[in-house]
Every structure is written in structure tokens, then in C-alpha cells.
Amino acid sequence: MDGIVTYESSSSDDDISKQDTAPTQLLKSSLIKSIDVAPVVEHKDEFLSLVPVDPQSHELIHNPTYEELFAPSFGPVNPFKSEKQLAPKNTLTGYVEEAHVNKFAFENQHRTFMTYGYAADPSVEGGADRRLVGETESMTENEGEVDLNICTYPFFKYSLTYPTNTSIKCL
Q1: Is the pTM of this model over 0.85?
Q2: What biological-process GO terms show up in the record (predicted)?
């Protein structure tokens, strides 16, 4: 029954619509500045066209320009790290590059170092300037000899000792 009581005729609807438009006209005053609540948003395609290059990744999914490839990386920098700690590295202790090392030469120098305490300097590329690193006292005793010249593993050199005349008399 409440619905019938609140029901109005069509003529009263026209009056209500006229009353609703009056307050909106007051809000559109020239003295009140209009405020745009929504910020200006750039088009989505502009953001999608710029794909950042990850310096930690070793592969590219797209063909970047020179500017994109060598652009500085953005983000916070830890102020408590030194330059060495911020340098790019692929292991915990630094940057390791693959290198070809002859297995025989490596084992030879490793055994020499373990036996005598010195080995050939790996930073020098062969030639006449062959430098040895390690214990200098052992180098002078062994005259820079490598372990391979001394040890014939698994068959070590042995020498036969014969009893001397004094040891024969004691026996």
C-alpha cells in the first residue's frame, strides 16, 4: 500500500525534473573553478613499445637499439657497498671467464706447487720471461725444477744400497 501512496501522477514528474535541474545550474557558476580529478594518462602503446633490457640476462627477446641496450640501469643503489661490490660478477668472489688450459700442464704445475711450494706464474704468457711464484727458498734448492722431472708416479725411482765394509764388519 505504501507504493500506491507514494505514487505520483505524470504531471508531478515534470515538476520534479524541473526542480532537479535547478541546483546543477547553480554549481556551474563561473566563479567556481573546475577541478579535473582524473590525471592525464598516456597511451598504453607508448609504454609497451619500450622494453627494458635486463643487464643480468644473457639473452635478448627483441632487437633493441643502441640507446636501449647501453642505457644506464635504473633503481636504487646501495650506499653501503664499495665499487668492487657493485661491479658485475657471476660468482660470489668475482667474475670468472672460461679459459682453455691444457690438462697436462695444469696437473704438472699443481703437483709442483703441492710438492715444492712454487709453480709457474699463470698470468705470464710463456716466452723467455718465465716467472715462478711461491716459496723462493725451494726454487733455489731445486733450481726451478718441476715435479714431473722428479716423480715418476706410480713407479718411484729407487736406489739399491749395498753394505759398506764397515757395516759388514759389524754384522
Answers
A1: no
A2: mRNA splicing, via spliceosome
